[in-house]
Amino acid sequence: MNAGLYIHIPFCTKACHYCAFYFVTSGSQKLKFIDALLLEIEQRSIELSGYQIDTIYFGGGTPSLLSTQEFSVIFEKIYTFYQISPQAEITIESNPENLTSEYIQGLKTIGVNRLSIGVQSFFDDDLSSMNRAHRSSEAISAIQIATKIINNVSIDLMFGLPYSGMNSWKENLKVATSMGVQHISTYNLTVEEKTYLARKVKRKEVKVEPDDVLNEMYYFTLDYLASKEYVNYEISNFGKENYFSRHNLGYWMGTPYIGFGPSAHSYVAANRRSNKSNLNEYIKSVSSKSIYWEMEALSPSNQFNEYILTRLRHYQGVNSEELREVFGSELYSFFIDSANAYVVKNLLELKNGCYILTNNGKVLADLITSDLMID
Ligand code: SF4
After folding, report:
1. pTM summary value
2. Peptide bond preceding 239: is omega within 30 degrees of 0, i.e. cis?
3. Which of 116, 130, 167, 349 has the greatest count of CB atoms below 10 A from its CB?
4. Which residues line ligand 1 (CB under 6 A)?
């Protein structure tokens, strides 16, 4: 059986104003963190014994703040303690300012075969208003270098940024699709609690776009990227054929995975584990073998809800026959009754027994999903 590995690298150069991921802006603990990470990787290998690792994903934070030498040491540990598929997809998230030709070549040499670049916007005004560490020219040059070396490059873009309207968004998509990347993730700016952006919005210093404008941008994205042959295989993700993110597909298809590092999540055998979001506690606890995580065994109803939540985001939707096999006739009937009501409203479509979000449904995905779940 296949499984995935996620490694959280919690370091960033600067704090982006909207960011709610776990990170620290000081690299002073980097070496101690790597030591702790190597220990965690070794200690937890038993959880995936018998599984073949098909995807490895370094997220953050900013993984590209690690040197290729540091990645090599981590890979060596992973390859020693886990059974890695020879065709494994190995992704590193990166920021444009770290990407030199030598660095990307070094990553490729040690086995990285997919690079995800946090571009967000090709406009300098957007980048400074979000406190990003790079400039547009660095993003362009990073993409040009990356696409020459690695044949699987993804970029992240954000829409709905303050003071950046529809025309800028169209231009961002135009530039992105002209650069030969195989994959594009698009996210609308959300105001997460406890972020600098949330404080600015509360003080009325920044106004975010209303839902109707965000929806218009999203509909445009769906049409425009489809016209450039990017398949919308998940609500926010678009890939050329054969370049969908296998790691993220694993999350949406219920493939087991282990997450290493502070704030990382794991999902194995209907158990969800969350490492605490605290670097110092992580470093101390891993070496003293004390508990730095929370565990939750998902109840059958939580497993059903999780199944709906993840499958519905995916372009092949919820397969009703599979749902009946896994969860039985009662939950099957509950699902079919609720889902058919959305088919009538053209928010879900039914194709070969699969319930799939229509474009109108994608905009209301959260609402529809929660309605299809059980209490
Ligand atoms: S670089 Fe990424 S993880 Fe770091 S603060 Fe910015 S958005 Fe958050």
Report:
1. 0.96
2. no
3. 116
4. 12, 15-16, 19, 21, 23, 60-62, 95, 118
- Residues shown for the chain: 375
**pLDDT at residue 164 in the model:** 87
pLDDT in tens, 237-252: 999 999 999 999 999 9
Q: Which of 322, 321, 318 is CA-nearest to residue 373?
A: 318
User: For residues 115 and 154, is the Cβ–Cβ distance under 8 A?
Assistant: yes
Q: 325: which residues sit within 8 A by CB, 6+ positions away?
A: none
Position in ligand 1 atom list of the atom nearest CA 18 = 7
What is the whole-number distance in angstroms between the Cα of residue 346 and the centre of ligand 1? Answer: 37
Torsion 171-173-176-177 (CA) sign: negative
Mean residue pLDDT across the chain: 97
Residue 158's pLDDT is 97
Residue to probe by mutation, ligand 1, list 8, 9, 14, 21, most atoms within 8 Å of CB: 21
Q: Name the residue among 123, 175, 169, 179 with its Cα closest to residue 146.
A: 179
The ligand 1 atom nearest the CA atom of 120: 7
Rounded to whole angstroms, the Cα distance separating 205 from 200 reads: 5
Which whole-number Å values give the CA distances from 306 to 31, 249, 267, 299, in the listed order?
36, 14, 11, 10
**CA-nearest residue, atom 2 of ligand 1:** 61
Q: What per-residue confidence (pLDDT) applies to 17?
A: 96
- The sign one gets for the Cα dihedral 33, 35, 41, 44 is negative
- The whole-angstrom separation of Cα 95 and Cα 114 is 14
Fold of 2-252: TIM Barrel (3.20.20)
pLDDT digits (tens, 9 = 90+) for 82-138: 999 999 999 999 999 999 999 999 999 999 999 999 999 999 999 999 999 999 999
DSSP 261: S
pLDDT value at position 375? Answer: 84
Q: Can you tell me the mean pLDDT for 26-52?
A: 97
CATH topology classification for 300-372: Arc Repressor Mutant, subunit A (1.10.10)
Residue 73 CA to residue 127 CA, distance in Å, equals 33
Residue spans per domain, the chain: 2-252, 300-372
**Tens-place pLDDT, residues 150-193:** 999 999 999 999 888 999 999 999 999 999 999 999 999 999 99
